[in-house]
Amino acid sequence: MRGVVVYSAPAKVYLSGEHAVVYNKRAVAVGIDLRTTVRLERSDNFHYQTNADTRYLEEAVNAFSSIKAVDGVEIKVESEIPVGAGLGSSAAVTVATLGALNEEFDANLSKEDIAKLAFEVERSIQGVASPTDTFVSTMGGCVLVPDLLRIQDTLDCAIVIGDTRTVGSTKKLVQAVKELRSSEPEVIDLIFDAIDRITAAVIEWLEAADYKRLGMLMNINHGLLDAIGVGSLELSALVDGARSHGAYGAKITGAGGGGCIVAICEAKKVAQVVEGIEEAGGKAIVADVSGDGLRKVVG
Ligand code: MEV
């Protein structure tokens, strides 16, 4: 009897490329320091305690059981990540659960193995999914998808998230974009190509730490997400609130429809940007990049 094993994994935001990444275009995402913590111990049965969807826990245990037999576990989840807000809460819970199972059942999985397994779990539940959320949540830092490369550890500017407190269904939004693409393939593919070019430039300005240009690219990316129909009045209001209060740039993050925007700004402008988002009706969350992805929680 080894007692409780505790692991945590972070949320993420997209600097560019959501939706286009589903069609193999490039995207850059960043792990942020909102985390989900999973406490796991062996048990004679399966008990799951979470405020969110238990399917991710069940499916993570099922997928892991194909590697090592699991007779029974008790899993308790605590999370700082809003659910259904496009911040990758389901990936974080899946990754943290697999991390804890890996240790408790001595499976010797690498982080790459865990990221892959977590992606399979997400895909089996959501249908269509890119490996972005599960990879960032496992590795942390700034990552390039679909290459699955960690391109940078951190950003030298502030990140402010604006939560509309409305929920968007990733599955439905991905489906709606698919239908739009079937009806206007040439137009939508040009938009995806443009988003891919934005990501190429995002990589360049990230490396050069030119956050003004990075912000400008985020603004353009936001316009293109609006163009493919995943915006909302609430999301636009928060984007405008952040920009008019001094952000370098702001855009939808994640599937859209509801959920969150992400803004970047100078450290000295954080309070102003928070005010802009809250005046526009959102909940502001100031976040740091999480250089750590999946990690063991000790003590
Ligand atoms: C959802 O957070 C982002 C999408 O690109 C879907 C995905 O990448 O799985 C819309």
Automatic annotation (TrEMBL):
A single Pfam family it belongs to is GHMP_kinases_C
User: GHMP kinase N-terminal domain spans which residues?
Assistant: 56-141
Annotated active site residues, numbered on this chain, are D133
Protein's cellular compartments: Cytoplasm
Q: Which reaction does it catalyse?
A: (R)-mevalonate + ATP = (R)-5-phosphomevalonate + ADP + H(+)
Q: What class of enzyme is it?
A: transferase
Q: Which residues form the GHMP kinase C-terminal domain?
A: 206-280
One cellular component term (GO) for this entry is: cytosol
What SUPFAM superfamilies does its record include? GHMP Kinase, C-terminal domain, Ribosomal protein S5 domain 2-like
- Please provide the record's keywords in A-Z order: ATP-binding, Cytoplasm, Isoprene biosynthesis, Kinase, Lipid biosynthesis, Lipid metabolism, Magnesium, Nucleotide-binding, Transferase
A single GO molecular-function term is: mevalonate kinase activity
Pathway where this protein functions: Isoprenoid biosynthesis; isopentenyl diphosphate biosynthesis via mevalonate pathway; isopentenyl diphosphate from (R)-mevalonate: step 1/3
Annotated coiled-coil positions are: none
Binding, ATP: P82, V83, G84, A85, G86, L87, G88, S89, S90, A91, A92
Q: What InterPro entries has UniProt attached to this entry?
A: GHMP_kinase_C_dom, GHMP_kinase_C_sf, GHMP_kinase_N_dom, GHMP_knse_ATP-bd_CS, Mev_gal_kin, Mevalonate_kinase_arc, Ribosomal_Su5_D2-typ_SF, Ribsml_uS5_D2-typ_fold_subgr
Q: In its UniProt record, which GO terms are filed under biological process? A: isopentenyl diphosphate biosynthetic process, mevalonate pathway
**Required cofactor names:** Mg(2+)
Report the EC code(s) recorded for this entry.
2.7.1.36
Q: How does it assemble?
A: Homodimer.
**Per the similarity annotation, which family is this?**
Belongs to the GHMP kinase family. Mevalonate kinase subfamily.
Task performed by this protein: Catalyzes the phosphorylation of (R)-mevalonate (MVA) to (R)-mevalonate 5-phosphate (MVAP). Functions in the mevalonate (MVA) pathway leading to isopentenyl diphosphate (IPP), a key precursor for the biosynthesis of isoprenoid compounds such as archaeal membrane lipids.
- Identification of the protein by name: Mevalonate kinase
